[in-house]
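Objective 1b: paired records.
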Amino acid sequence: MKRHMIVVLLLTCIGGLMAQSERTIEKSFKAVSKIRIKTVSGDVEVIKSSNDKINVTVRYEVEPEGAFEARFDDNGRDLRLSEHWSGRSSRGYVRWTVEVPQNTEIRFSTASGDFAADGLEMELDASTASGDIELTGCKGKFNASTASGEIDIDDVAGEMDLSTASGNIEVNGGNGELEASTASGSIRIDDSKGSFDCSAASGDIDANDLTFEDIADFSVASGDVKVKLSAPLKHDIELTTASGSVTLDFNGQTIKGYFELTAREDRGRIRAPFDFDKEDTFERYDKQYIRKSISISGSEPRIILSTATGRASILR
């Protein structure tokens, strides 16, 4: 019992020291149209302001003391928030909370910090090296890129330009223009509508319950592409891959339009719930390809599926 009490007292003391070592900076500024935020490793959360001012809270715990400095530069036109670190052995965490009025433009860059925005109408340009980017319940224009981090989009409307090197991209409840690209990551899209231009090098694209309001293009090099509809297809769509498979699932929607499916003759496969009325072969990169096509209830929209060594499939 005595040993247990000693452990509890030690943990309580340590917890108290840790709580006391966290420091807080709070500042308030008049609203400006643009905020530039540049961090080294600090995480940033941007939320809606309740008083039409820009309110900034910085919480940090850094060793050694004095290794971190939060900097604020307000020139009346834009507000600049940044981190300054000194010493090679400094360590700890920094968390920024930035409250902004609606329709504020945010420019954010970091090395390893994360970025999150919630419930804002905004224009965003965010880039990270290894940090993650998360947007929830936002409207506006968004340009987000990361090297090895993840991008997570939930209930966002507007123009979205998203890119990663090795990180994944996830979009749920998107509405608007979506352009997403990744090198070795994967792209997943659920319950979204608008226009789509998505590409991956060695990753997969998995898109479910989509409503297309414009031409759509999904392409990968060595991965798979799967697209499932949630509404009748009224616009052209193209699904392409080299060594993977492509699948367009109509999910019970009316099958109509011009269909053209292509695969390598010796290693690829073409599958559809209907018979094609035209078939031909052609040569590409010294390999023979087979192409099958048909028009069902008219020639629009155009549905193009292409693969080399995988399957090109239409599902009813």
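Objective 1b, second protein:
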Amino acid sequence: MVGNTPIIMRGLNHFFGEGEARKQAIWDVNLALEGGKLTVLMGPSGSGKTTLLTLMGCLRNVQEGSIELMGHELHGASEAVLVRLRRRLGFIFQAHNLHESLTATQNVLMGLEVQGAGDRSKQLAAVHHILGLLGLADRVDYLPQNLSGGQKQRVAVARALVGNPEIIFADEPTAALDKDSGHNVVQMLKALGQSRGVTTVMVTHDNRILELADRVITLEEGRVVGDSKPG
């Protein structure tokens, strides 16, 4: 990690398929993402945004080029190294991926499981604190079937944040939320950057939240075609 630059990509290429069906999805991406900032990835469907996000988040293997994540090279990294890095990350996806048989509290507790056993009372206190911050203090014991779509997504956000990750990767986190709820979630992610130095990389089609971004990177057909700092 060079200074406060937790993500550095150099000459990054990525392919899907084999033989004649092989198709390039990411083309020669070179980016350095500053720590503590909210970076938004924009672009039409199929432009490579989610592929790039999953490569940075250790959810896909780096095929060509380099990604340096928090000082660790991902190209050729062992599974043990990748697991250790994932424990320092938080993930928010468009589909909330909640376990239907678990309460909001139990779903968020799963965000702490990767850190191993801990003081249960302290874990519960942390879970209830983050749920409260997200306006769910009166829903901590509700099952997903008794929550609205927006409430389910906020539980998913709480699950990603409860372990105090150093980097948050978010794929369309506001897609299931109304304007105010979506704005509040993104404001919280931005505030975490300002108060704790948490870095957020977010894929979105939601132009309403661009005003909160520190940096907007635009992709088309797997290539970076725009890189700006709003305001």
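The CA atoms of residues 139 and 146 lie 9 Å apart. The longest strand covers residues 23-33.
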